[in-house]
Amino acid sequence: MGTKNANLLLRLLIVVLEAFDSIFKLLYTTWYRLAAKARAAQAGGSNPPPPTVIGIILAEPNTAGISLHRAASVAAWCLAYESVQQVHLYEPSGHLKQSRALLQDSLAQVAEQQGRSIAVKCGWTASNTSSGPAVAAAAAGAAASNSSTSTAVTVRVLSAEDAFVPVMDAVAQRCSAFAVPGGSPRAAAAAASNSLQQQQQQQQCEAGARTEQPVLGACGQHYANGTPGGTRFCRQQQADLCNGTQPYQQQQQQQQQHGSMLLELAAVTGSSEIASEPQLLLVYGPVLTLAGYPPFHTRAAEVQHIGPLAQASQRGIADAVAAYCKVLQRHGA
C-alpha cells in the first residue's frame, strides 16, 4: 500500500514539473519575441514593401533533369503577389530557354486570373529591335519607377551567358571607341580605363556640388556680398568635394556609379529591364550558391535558400516573402 502511494505521488510530481516547464517555455518565448521587437525598433531602419522583382536561381546539380512544371509553378507562385512585376528565372545551362513557349502557356492562365498580361522572354534581348541603345537607356530609369503601376508582368529566363555577355559587350564597346589602328588591345583598354576614371571623377564633382548645400550657400553669400577671396573659397571647397574629402557622400556616389553601369548595360543590350534589380533572390538546390547569377543584380538583394526544387511549395515562397518584409533594410542609410 505504501509503495503504491509513493508511485502515485511520484507521477503527480512529474506531471506538475512538466506543467511548470511548459509554462516557463511559454513565458520565455513571449519575452524573447517582445525583446526582439524592441531591439529592432531601437536599431532603426524601415520595413520594406513587398518585392517588385524576384530572382529565382535553380542551382540543381542535374540541370538537364529540372522539371519544367516545377519551374513554372515557382514562377507562378511569385506572380501571385500583386506587387511582383518581374521574375528572373535563372538556370545556368540554358535548358529552360528551349521551353519558352511552354512556360508562356503555363503562366498565361495565372496572369489572366489576375487581370494582367504576361510575357516570357529569354536573355536580355530587346523586345523592340527598332529602338536604339539611346532609347533603351532613357527607358531604363522609367522602367524601375513605373513598374508598380504597370499591369504587365515579365518572366526573364536567364542562363550563365546572360551574366557576362552584357558586361563583355559593354567593355568591348568602350574599348572600341579608344582603339588606335595598329595599336594593341591593352593600350585601348588602358585608355578606356583612364576615360572611365575621369568620367567618375567628374560625376563625383557634380554630385558633390549638388548635394553640399552648406558649401553652395556659403558660395552664394560670398558672391552676393562681394567678399574678398570668395572665388578662392568656393574653388577650394569644390576641390575638396572633388577630391573625395566628404566621406558621407561616398556611399551616394557609389550608388550613382552602379546606376550608371546598369544604364550602360541597358544601352548595350537594348533592353531597359536589365536596370531593374531584384530585391529578393530565392535559391533552389541542395546548397546555397548563386551558380553564376548576374553579379550586377546582387548588389542589394536579400538571398534566401529555400531547398531542393523537388520540395518546392507555395508555403516556402510565402515564408520567404514574409521574412523579407519583416527584415529592417538599411541599404543607403
Write a brief caption for the model.
By secondary structure, the protein is of the alpha/beta class. 55% of the residues lie in helices and 11% in strands.
Mean of residue pLDDT values: 74
Which secondary-structure class do the elements indicate? Answer: alpha/beta
| Beta strand % | 5-15%
- The low-confidence runs, each spanning 5 or more residues with pLDDT under 50, are 127-140, 142-149, 211-224, 240-248
Order of helices and strands: HEHEHEHEHHHHHEEH
What share of the residues lie within helices? 40-55%
Enzyme class: transferase
GO molecular function: ditrans,polycis-polyprenyl diphosphate synthase [(2E,6E)-farnesyl diphosphate specific] activity
Cofactor: Mg(2+)
Organism: Tetradesmus obliquus (Green alga)
Q: What does this molecule look like?
A:
It is a single chain. By secondary structure, the protein is of the alpha/beta class. The protein contains ten helices and six strands, in the order αβαβαβαβαααααββα. It folds into two domains: 53-163 and 271-326, Aldehyde Dehydrogenase, Chain A, domain 2; 174-255, no CATH class. α4 (133-145) crosses α9, α5 (161-176) packs across α6 (185-211) and α5 (161-176) packs across α9. It is elongated and about 100 Å long.
Write the layout of secondary structure elements.
Layout: H1 2-43, E1 53-58, H2 68-79, E2 86-90, H3 100-113, E3 117-122, H4 133-145, E4 152-158, H5 161-176, H6 185-211, H7 213-225, H8 230-242, H9 250-269, E5 280-284, E6 302-307, H10 314-326
Parallel strand pairs: 1-2, 1-5, 2-4, 3-4, 5-6
Helix pairs in contact: 2-3, 4-9, 5-6, 5-9, 6-8, 7-8
